[in-house]
Design brief:
With 342 residues, the protein is of the alpha/beta class. The protein has helices spanning 10-21, 63-80, 99-109, 119-128, 142-145, 168-178, 194-209, 225-234, 245-248, 251-261, 270-276, 285-300, 323-329, and strands at 52-58, 85-91, 113-117, 134-139, 159-163, 184-190, 213-219, 238-241, 265-267, 279-282, 312-313, 318-321, 338-339. The protein has a seven-stranded mixed sheet with strand order 7-6-8-9-10-12-13, sandwiched between helices. Helix 3 crosses helix 4 and helix 6 (168-178) crosses helix 7. The two termini are 23 Å apart.
Length: 342
């Protein structure tokens, strides 16, 4: 055992659409060009000069999503070489209603492939086009996000990608490992994120089998995160927060509630753990972005059929702890946990 000593408005949408529809001169939100060498773009004229044009729609600026985007771009630059790919990037800044506008801009430009980073961009891309290949990343469960029955691992349309889901049975086992005396686990999540609901549905079954009482505490948006977190603290020995984009954007507000209340948080991913958690079983978002980049290369260069490509999961998961929060709450974690990065 190891004892831790310390531990929008219509005008905005119109402006965004106009900027995305512009040529690749740098006016699109967060637009960036990376230069990789010689293959001609197969499906569209958005890049020109023999480059592949890739549209990237990211839900929000967040370390985990940023890492996935970077991994995707790095994979394509490394495989194609400098000078042969142009990235057109749009960031919805946490407003899912802007994702369709960003995606529509990519479709209008006839990009060769779209990367949808998080669930809302994936849903927008799947609705906007059935012709352009779409790869998701940082998406927890594709069947839930796209309302697919009888899931077999393949979407079967122009959509595939990588999942950020860590094994939920292992996350439940971690709660039992670190908090063996806890009786009630509260699940804190955004009701508007279907993948968060899915994670809670699944892990709740495991927790009940282990003898825990479970309670759900759902917030609607940023405005009620703190108040719902306080209610969760009042009714829980331990709080579980799944991989949830809204929670990830509001970890400071959650920390300001759970730490004074002395209620530990088990987080579904490292970013949330860094902000308000004590332990997590996490994936590396750069890795799943890189895997999506490899899939994109296979589609663009080798002619792989996206409709037959199975959704891929992270190659490994890691147990991590937040040293400062563990110390503040007097929590001892078992051996084999890595400290989260700063």
């Amino acid at each position: 055992m190891k004892k831790l000593s310390k531990l929008m408005a219509p005008a905005l949408s119109l402006a965004l659409a106009l900027s995305l529809a512009a040529c690749s001169g740098g006016d699109a939100p967060s637009q960036n060009s990376a230069s990789p060498a010689g293959n001609s773009a197969p499906g569209g004229d958005a890049a020109g000069d023999g480059k592949y044009a890739i549209g990237i729609c990211q839900l929000a600026p967040h370390p985990a999503l940023d890492a996935a985007t970077q991994g995707f771009k790095d994979a394509l630059v490394e495989k194609l070489g400098e000078g042969n790919v142009e990235f057109k990037e749009g960031n919805a800044s946490g407003d899912s209603s802007l994702c369709p506008t960003i995606i529509d801009g990519f479709v209008a430009q006839k990009v060769d492939l779209i990367l949808a980073n998080a669930t809302a961009p994936l849903q927008a891309a799947a609705s906007a086009t059935s012709d352009i290949p779409v790869l998701g990343t940082s998406v927890t469960d594709y069947a839930t996000a796209l309302e697919i029955d009888n899931w077999n691992g393949t979407v079967g349309t122009n959509v595939s990608g990588t999942s950020d889901l860590a094994p939920l049975d292992q996350q439940a086992a971690m709660i039992q490992e670190v908090f063996p005396e806890a009786k009630t686990v509260g699940m804190l999540y955004c009701s508007g994120e279907p993948n968060s609901v899915y994670q809670c549905d699944v892990i709740e079954g495991y927790l009940k089998e282990m003898g825990y009482e479970t309670k759900r505490f759902a917030f609607n948006d940023t405005n009620d995160v703190a108040s719902v977190a306080q209610t969760a603290c009042d009714g829980s020995d331990v709080i579980y927060i799944p991989t949830d984009n809204t929670a990830a954007d509001n970890t400071e507000a959650i920390a300001n509630v759970v730490l004074p209340a002395k209620v530990p948080v088990m987080a579904g991913e490292e970013g949330i753990c860094k902000g308000c958690g004590v332990v997590t079983l996490t994936i590396d978002y750069y890795d799943i972005g890189y895997m999506a980049g490899e899939m994109a290369y296979d589609i663009l260069v080798n002619g792989a059929d996206v409709s037959t490509m199975a959704v891929k999961s992270a190659p490994e998961v890691v147990k991590k702890y937040n040293a400062a929060n563990c110390e503040a709450l007097g929590i001892t974690v078992p051996e084999g946990y890595e400290a989260t990065g700063e």
